[in-house]
Structure prediction request, 293 residues.
Amino acid sequence: MLRRAHWAIAVISLLGFCVATRAQESYYGNYVIHLKPGKGAAFEALVKKMVAANRDYQGDNWVVIQTAFGESGTISSVALRQSYGEFQKASDAFDKAVEKAMGHPGTEQFFEELDNCIAAYHPLLLRRRPDLSSNFPSDRATEAKIVGNTRWIRTIRITVRVGQYQRFEELAKHVKAAQEKADPNLYSWVSESVAGESEGVYYVSQLRSSLAGFDGETPLPQIMGNDAWQSLLKTASEVIQSEDVTLSQIRGDLSNPPDDIASVAPSFWRPKPAAAAATPGAGAAKAKVPPKK
Prediction:
């Protein structure tokens, strides 16, 4: 059964498999959900209730990403954490918010309905890698502005061959340097899987404000030059086992981001609920009632 702790991106049970931490690391809790066919509308309605509960009662924060080009029916809920301990705190805050909003019986029923919409779920713990990322922000305010304006993400999932991790990271740093030199507004942020899947999986997330933002980018061979590009290709063929690319859309209506992100574009991140539609014929029936004398 899908429990509320899962929705809070609580992957504490996976942490025993993590490698040793480094100083001042930060993480993404990435909870990948595969919906049952025909359950999309019901799922979204339930998530919107969950968003309202966490917003009203100071619960957890997350951003929802829906796959547009890739495996259909896939939605990811992503949350930023500064430490392992924050996962537990977020889970507790999430539980309290939902219980306050729905009461205990209502909470149990809510999660049963949510479970009925989901075919499979897969929690991942990712370590952020600013040292491999292109134009990664140096402060929280800049990061919030970039994320607040993001609407589409192209994700490249790279599986590196065993024993080739160091060579891959050296390769990634060359790409980082070339991209940053070419365009200071080209955001390609890298994270590394540390729990929930095999070692040696990296994610390159390219953030754009629109689909058109992927058009007109200067090709990497042109940025690097032919000799450097050919050298990169040779190394990549030796260290990379596979690559998968997906294109996903941010769902502001299903997200509950922190205030600094939401304030960048309030109408997108915190849209007002649609007004209830009038009952057909109600106006006509009312018009037929004779005025009182």
